[in-house]
Please model this.
Amino acid sequence: MQISPTRSALLEAKDERRVMEEGFRFLDEKRLLLAAEIITLFNKRDEVKKEHNALFKQAQNDMSQSITRHGLHGLQAQPAINRQEPKIKSQTRSFFGVTLIENANLTQATKPEITEGVNPSPEAKQCRNTFAKLLTKSITMAEISNNLQRLLLEYRRTDRRARALEDVILPELDQAIHHIESQLEEMDQEEAVRVRLGRKVG
Model:
């Protein structure tokens, strides 16, 4: 930095460094809180993933039993859990400016009764209910994955800014302040020498 060695420049540089230091502290704290939230979501995802995998295996087993009972074409003739097109309803919250999705679930205007198909069976009913649970759990997995991606993106941005302040801007300001202080000290010494020499000559 090319800064004129003046008292006002020194004060401005120190003020700027103080502001940058406060900015770094905020970003550093934000970085830690984002990391904590990411870890919490990773742990939650692991729990939900275990439940999802268990439901997926159960769905495979239930479908196998239903196909054994009805055959593939016969199972396709069985009614689905709901004939209306479902919609996903969710809430949102803000975490350091990052919009996170919460409580995502399927919702419908009406809940039609399920009419039994031709040759209904407990196997088909169980298969239908298991896949409905699997769908709900898949929505929860998607919600967590979406939130993780948003938080990770914000963490990387925050980390880059914090590192730029810590590794580049603050050291440059420290160097500039040191340079100004050194120049001012030299100027004070030169002025003191001139004053002494002037007294001797006088």
